[in-house]
Amino acid sequence: MHTPFGIAMAMTLLLCATAPRAEEKPFACPEVPSPVIAVSFGSRYTDDSKTRSDIDETSNADVDKALQPVEKFIGELMKMANTALVNADANRASCVLDWLDQWAAAGALTNLETANVELAIPARYAGIAIALLQAETVGALDPVKRARVVDWLSDAGADMRAFFDTEAPRNASRNNLRAWAGLASAAIGRLDGDAASLDWARESFELVACQAAPDGSLPLEMNRADKALNYQLHATAPLVVTADLLKATGYDGYAACDGNLARIAGFSLAALADPSIVQKINGVEQTFQTGKQEVEPFMLAWVEPLLRHQPDPALDELVDGLRPLGHAKLGGNLTRIGDWISRLPAVSG
């Protein structure tokens, strides 16, 4: 026999289950964060750090502070682009363009005051360009605004290429920083169809990937003392996504350099499982061994596109506990958005 309380509870649950849900408020494009025109900071490392691995805590904090508004902008922009992409939401896609248009009109990120900024900003260009690629995958965008944004990114890309070709320090022009610049050039090239952007992206990819040792380790990253594995991972990420972006141009990044990309990725994963692999190469305990770092999802966001190219049930299961895997400068939540790059139009170059 049901008690009055039991009947009341049942009725309440029934009413909750059948009551119409409140309508969601229509999306309203949020206010655009203030454009960041000039960026200035020095090195994260101490002046006497020959391996570029000894952090100067004060300088490191200054770098983070200088980049914080840019990082926040890209993070929010990418979340919006991801949602637009997954839900085919034209309003959010238009908002992505509106945000970028205001930054482009203001000449954002064009006053790069130090060489360290010139080295760091390409990863941010990559995130911005990828956000626009995702937005326009949803549908046609305002052509005037799009042209203004693409011109802004194309000019920034040309300056970036010139810097890396003529001014960047020798190691920086060939290590993970060059890989991120290559990703930016690939993303911008997919937007503007410029052969120079796409060619430079391919050249950058091979410049970094072809250096790999037979085991997949990257020599310039292995020279970074206790942060060698950290920088190996930091180089692997843009290489994998660049290969995806360049595939539509007819370029096979996985076949380049005798298949080095798969070896680079394999070494990165093996070393995360056993960092002593890196220690045997450079003689230094890695931050993942000493407890200074732990594996975080963003470090393995590149595994999602890797798994699409090379399915591996064991690896899939291994990273499942870390999902969703996301990195704002690689395209946001790469678990959520799936193989979105294949939906972009083919390009020549």
What does this structure look like?
There is one protein chain. The longest helix has 31 residues, at 57-87. This protein has helices at residues 4-18, 57-87, 90-105, 115-138, 143-166, 176-192, 195-209, 219-222, 228-247, 256-273, 276-282, 287-290, 303-309, 313-320, 334-337, and strands at residues 38-39, 111-112, 326-327, 332-333. Helix 3 runs antiparallel to helix 4 (115-138) and helix 7 packs antiparallel against helix 9. Residues 1-20 have low confidence and may be disordered. It is built from 15 helices and 4 strands. The strands form 2 sheets. A two-stranded parallel sheet has the order 1-2. A two-stranded antiparallel sheet has the order 3-4. It has 349 residues and is mainly α. It has one domain (26-343): Glycosyltransferase. It starts with a helix and ends in a 12-residue tail after the last helix.
What's the topology here?
Layout: H1 4-18, E1 38-39, H2 57-87, H3 90-105, E2 111-112, H4 115-138, H5 143-166, H6 176-192, H7 195-209, H8 219-222, H9 228-247, H10 256-273, H11 276-282, H12 287-290, H13 303-309, H14 313-320, E3 326-327, E4 332-333, H15 334-337
Parallel strand pairs: 1-2
Antiparallel strand pairs: 3-4
Helix pairs in contact: 2-3, 2-4, 3-4, 3-5, 4-5, 4-6, 5-6, 6-7, 6-9, 7-9, 9-10
